[in-house]
């Protein structure tokens, strides 16, 4: 785990945000620290607050309460702006600019701009510099948006659903581009995604949101080691009482549970080590049950 | 700042080009028609005309004579429409286009701050607006001058001259730009912002016209004269159409009680009714500038208020 002294890519304490003063909270009481140099998967169901969190981290929104720090600076300040890049979900670009114009704009609007990287990203996508952005395919547009973000040589790259509306081949190419960049220089990436299997291979940190609160902020290796998937007879459920059960499902007389054991497991269980996808799904599903319990209690 | 100015220029260069084209065309037309007007004046056709508001007639057939001022009036109409045009086509897309496409999120994720981004584009748009409206207002004035306040030309109080020239034209254009900018921020759609801008700027133009006609801001002067002496000529004054007679106690009564222009009938009638003087109400020609400065202060002030509101809302909404 990380201590408070270690430089963080992204951190928050008591962070809260709501879109209108009278509306519900999109984020509430969020506290987490994502260390630098990690590729972080920001996971959560629709409406969990992923985009809101990334907009806050990129300085497009201001917290209603608490605070958020990107690379230990306040988002939106000059220091944060020059080192943090954000690509929002809709990947907005000026449709009437050519690709070359768009990159020229990046060069003009950023104090440190490395033309080599964006040009390579665009070239690898087979995109003509003279093409108008409005005439590109969604995949090509994503590439241009990424090129623009990488050209400013960010230390923290925030990507909101970068892989949505891309076909699997392009998805792989885009991820490969990102991984190359991350490996070649000090780059922390936070990317939100619904595509859990893609994250399994690439991400080494998980930030999981549920209903606007932080569910997990942990190293993926630790998560894999800590979780067990157990299957056994439903009558033996009492034996699980001493452990942290993330999610459980009964199918007839068979019980399947995702849990974090505290000490040795009693009883007759078939035990496996779940993959990251199963762990994350368990945590996302578990939230439902938890929310249900809370409603009954209220 | 340099970067955001570059972006502002890159996005507004078409508008700047259109503005420049309009200016060139207007200047060419103004030069052409003005020289035609000067030729007509130099020809001595109008030399016998009195300076008053009554039509000057041709000695040969008695028909009223005019300079060809229709093109000048068209330029005045264009100047009056400037707030609407600039508001819709320059103001509304200024923030509205980015709001519609979401591209402000991309720009603000680069190295420029919200303040730099907004200041650059508004500054360029305001500069363009001042250049276009200022030049057109000056062109109108230059063209109008030889024909100003002549019965065969254009009096200062006619709508196209009063609202289509002078500093109020610039203030009105900036007002239109401010309305469009705020509408673009609030409406999130360029088309909706244009519709809002059209209704607000057009309504304001009518309100300003009504203020002029009602003379609420610049009240007319009352010219009083003894019935025994000729009254001061109307000349280039803007009459309210309100004439009358004054009794010894100072009461004003309608002019129709003694409907005589002058002479013994008038004298006799006034004595019979106990009137001691005649009066009429009108704005002197110097009120052109009073009206101009009132309009400039009103519209310029509104432009500042709307821009301040845009800055405040920009922090909350974008």
Automatic annotation (TrEMBL), chain A:
Keyword Disulfide bond attached: no
Gene3D superfamilies: P-loop containing nucleotide triphosphate hydrolases (3.40.50.300)
Keyword Transmembrane appears in the UniProt entry: no
Protein name, as recorded: ABC transporter ATP-binding protein
Keywords: ATP-binding, Nucleotide-binding, Transport
GO molecular function, one term: ATP binding
Start and end residues of each ABC transporter domain: 10-236
UniProtKB/TrEMBL annotation, chain B:
Taxonomic superkingdom: Bacteria
Record organism: Streptomyces fumanus
Bilayer-spanning residue ranges: 74-96, 122-144, 164-186, 193-212, 293-314
Keywords: Membrane, Transmembrane, Transmembrane helix
Protein name (database record): Transporter
